[in-house]
Amino acid sequence: MAAYPDLYLHIAGDHIERGGRRVFPVLNPATGETLGELPLADAADLDRALDAGASGFRLWRESTPQQRAAVLNGASRLLHERADALAHVMTLEQGKTLVEARIEVMMVAGLFAFYAGECQRLYGRALVRPTGQRSTVTHEPVGPVAAFAPWNFPAGNPGRKLGAPIAAGCSVILKAAEETPASALAVLQCLLDAGLPPGVAQAVFGVPDEVSRHLLGSPVIRKLSFTGSTTVGRHLIRLAAEDMKRTTMELGGHGPVLVFDDADVDRTLDTMATSKWRNAGQVCVSPTRFIVHQRLYPRFRAGFVERARALRVGDGLDPQSQMGPMANARRPEAMERLVADATAHGARLDAGGTRIGNRGFFFAPTVLSEVPIEAQVMNDEPFGPIAIINPYADEDAMIAEANRLPYGLAAYLWTEDSRRQKRVAREIEAGMVGVNTSMIGGADAPFGGVKWSGHGSEDGPEGVQACLITKAIHEA
What we know:
There is one protein chain. By secondary structure, the chain is of the alpha/beta class. Helices cover about 40% and strands about 20% of the residues. It has two domains: about 270 residues, Aldehyde Dehydrogenase, Chain A, domain 1; about 190 residues, Aldehyde Dehydrogenase, Chain A, domain 2. It has a seven-stranded mixed β-sheet with strand order 14-15-16-13-12-18-19, sandwiched between helices.
């Protein structure tokens, strides 16, 4: 496999390397060693990116659906060809297993292919009017987009941020995470190699607050797309509101899993335990609060603990590893604080709860049970390999706990009762609900939340529509 690549900013078609700029050390989370140094943008770099984004938008908005589709389809093919190399880079800088990394690359390839088809389906409509009058409704690209992507899906999140604006005819300035820059740059390179004009997409990195204030303070930017924490999301919305910029916000969650007394316990455990430990729990839709009917509770807890203890944790490059390290040094520290707080409140620590080894950022798969509602982990998203399992007496109590928090991203329910499936899915306050499944995403399905988990959707037709404005034209 190739070594870790050189890092750069991509602005107006140029690769901008370190020069005299500040740098950010990119670490391998499995070892803690430095992989490379990422140049950070200064104000002049950001101004140049804005200028390129403005001119890129004027060019790309005039592109035909066929031109946009050709770029997206071409990038999809290149992602397939480069999947192994990109997965290797992703595991180096983020830590997830190679299997998970390769699946992520395929997800981006599928999304680009879907968006290529959506380029042909940006329909308007003609309204019924008296003879001699004509009224039409059209959809036009909103303008240059500032897109901010986190580190947990180093290819998937940048793919979402780039694909939808490009399909809609917008330009985009991408600020991916400084912890995982090479994956984002590789995705962008696929688009460029497929024929995307250089000024249509830029990639900048820098001190997050500096970059966000500079980009969102410019009238060039007409839309903000952000994936990340609710706290940061609220800050960015305030910045965007100053200029009335459109926003798509995919924020934090605290995924409830309702396990009813008629659930298939083994199937539920096999599915949801695997989903819990995916990407070391660093997933916005990760199942976290297991809300279990008291009749199944002892068996369910025992089965979950057994699976947690059996999980093989190690370097994501090792094919034997089932869970890699956490992405950075901050995450194990956060897990330790949450576990200590929960046990201090009287929770049971059934598995894990500690770091693994003294090299890298590994944390053991952790199961907490009988966790009081006052514990921090019951109210704040852990974003790590912590599962909470508590018993509940009946359906009403289970739904009340699922809806208790202000988050509403993803929720899951397990029951064999078809009427209950429909009833509970309707009652749950979430943007996405999985019924007897952990699979809640797809290129053709909207991805987004409600309440403090944000607004708007990515993926599906909704992802492209979020990058369009609606215009009514009336002629007499």
